[in-house]
Automatic annotation (TrEMBL):
<protein>
    <recommendedName>
        <fullName>GHMP kinase C-terminal domain-containing protein</fullName>
    </recommendedName>
</protein>
<keyword id="KW-0119">Carbohydrate metabolism</keyword>
<dbReference type="GO" id="GO:0006012">
    <property type="term" value="P:galactose metabolic process"/>
</dbReference>
<dbReference type="InterPro" id="IPR013750">
    <property type="entry name" value="GHMP_kinase_C_dom"/>
</dbReference>
<feature type="domain" description="GHMP kinase C-terminal">
    <location>
        <begin position="272"/>
        <end position="348"/>
    </location>
</feature>
<comment type="similarity">
    <text>Belongs to the GHMP kinase family. GalK subfamily.</text>
</comment>
<dbReference type="InterPro" id="IPR020568">
    <property type="entry name" value="Ribosomal_Su5_D2-typ_SF"/>
</dbReference>
<dbReference type="InterPro" id="IPR014721">
    <property type="entry name" value="Ribsml_uS5_D2-typ_fold_subgr"/>
</dbReference>
<dbReference type="GO" id="GO:0005524">
    <property type="term" value="F:ATP binding"/>
</dbReference>
<dbReference type="Pfam" id="PF08544">
    <property type="entry name" value="GHMP_kinases_C"/>
</dbReference>
<keyword id="KW-0299">Galactose metabolism</keyword>
<dbReference type="GO" id="GO:0005829">
    <property type="term" value="C:cytosol"/>
</dbReference>
<dbReference type="InterPro" id="IPR006206">
    <property type="entry name" value="Mevalonate/galactokinase"/>
</dbReference>
<dbReference type="GO" id="GO:0004335">
    <property type="term" value="F:galactokinase activity"/>
</dbReference>
<keyword id="KW-0547">Nucleotide-binding</keyword>
<keyword id="KW-0067">ATP-binding</keyword>
<dbReference type="InterPro" id="IPR036554">
    <property type="entry name" value="GHMP_kinase_C_sf"/>
</dbReference>
Length: 377
């Protein structure tokens, strides 16, 4: 909706790209992200980017640093035996982003940012000591960590420039993969048992514990992390959020690697079903992390993804921001009708739906082009 309304505004005001003039795709994504913030929701921009710059039969590997960039990754689902499609299923649970911002969307933003700062302090990453009121991201922590622990040539420039907000060379996929794998183990220092000595029970930190762990005064902490956004929580789950972000980023790289590893084979050849099983396993792991670590799922989404797997899906996860909305499942193309029938029978909200009403909430789809032309820019 945000992309559609932004696009409509640009069209009415004759600001769309024409022969290289006017608004470009990257600018449209940035506008959509800013427009969502104006209604009180701080989103990362992934959905907006996918809505604008997607290409047919492909997934997008999207990076936002040092600039917005999208790499088209050909999906193997048109070459596997059996061929596969994605089935979208609406949980019929509505999550209002604005209403739930304080306890969901915006809270996750703050938890992730504070986790980044505390992790940097605990790992003795030097740029924190030189910028006590900075607000580093987990992506910046990754760059600094790789420089400090893995010592990749040229990453010294990356660390310095990221903290200063300047553009710098992007890390390679291989460097990111190694750094993420090692940081997942380092995240253990964010557990409450490590930070405040709490053994068993609540893993989150109270506001007071979080402020103390940040190394900032209460006044500075509130200015840096709370003055620009409203949040509401008794405990802040820094360990869970950081572990989800790093593990999800690693799964994205693994999904990309798997797709690329089979794209080099003959386009006429058939790929084994194991390719679909491997992709599906990554989707399942993502759903588990969304549910257990980022806690952005809900009982209905958990139930619907479980039903999808039991109905024959290779993998199933929530899609979008979570707390309601839809799931996406990887399904054999020749079994779509049977799959939908089995899901309908097992998911209570679907049992009374027939015909068009059913097809509006569960349907097969394939990746298609974005909402704004064909070229990525």
């Amino acid at each position: 909706m945000v992309v559609a309304s932004t696009l409509a505004f640009l069209a009415v005001n004759d600001k769309l790209d024409k022969d290289g003039q006017g608004t470009r795709k990257g600018e449209l994504v940035e506008m959509a992200v800013e427009n969502e913030k104006r209604v009180g929701v701080n989103s990362g921009g992934m959905d907006q980017a996918a809505s604008v710059i997607s290409l047919p039969t492909s997934a997008l590997y999207i990076s936002f640093f040092p600039v917005l960039h999208a790499e088209s990754i050909l999906l193997p689902i048109t070459r596997t035996v059996p061929r596969a499609v994605f089935v979208c299923a609406n949980s019929l649970v509505v999550s209002d982003k604005v209403v739930g911002a304080k306890t969901r969307y915006n809270l996750r933003v703050v938890e992730v940012l504070v986790a980044a700062r505390i992790l940097a302090r605990l790992l003795s990453l030097s740029f924190i000591s030189g910028a006590p009121a900075s607000k580093p991201t987990l992506r910046e922590i990754l760059g600094a960590y790789i420089n400090a622990r893995i010592r990749i040539p040229g990453s010294e420039v990356l660390e310095t420039n990221e903290v200063r907000g300047q553009a710098s060379p992007a890390l390679s996929v291989e460097q990111l993969e190694e750094g993420l794998g090692r940081l997942l183990g380092e995240c253990e220092v964010l557990r409450a048992s490590k930070l405040v000595g709490r053994v068993g029970g609540e893993e989150g930190l109270t506001m007071e514990e979080m402020v103390e762990a940040s190394g900032l005064s209460k006044e500075v902490f509130e200015e840096v992390y709370l003055s620009w956004v409203d949040v509401e929580a008794t405990h802040f789950q820094l360990y869970k959020r950081a572990k989800h972000v790093f593990s999800e980023a690693l799964r994205v790289l693994q999904f990309r690697k798997l797709c690329l590893s089979v794209s080099g084979s003959s386009e006429e050849g058939d790929l084994p079903e194991s390719t679909l099983k491997d992709l599906g396993a990554l989707m399942d792991a993502s759903q588990e992390s969304c549910s257990e670590l980022f806690e952005c799922s809900c009982p209905e989404l958990n139930r619907l993804t479980t039903i999808a797997r039991e109905a024959g899906a290779y993998g199933s996860r929530l899609t979008g921001a979570g707390w309601g909305g839809c799931t996406v499942s990887l399904v054999a193309e020749n079994d779509v009708e049977g799959f939908i029938s089995r899901v309908k029978a097992a998911y209570p909200p679907y049992r009374d739906l027939e015909g068009e009403r059913l097809s509006e909430v569960i349907f097969a789809t394939k990746p298609s082009g974005g909402a704004f032309g064909t070229a990525i820019s």
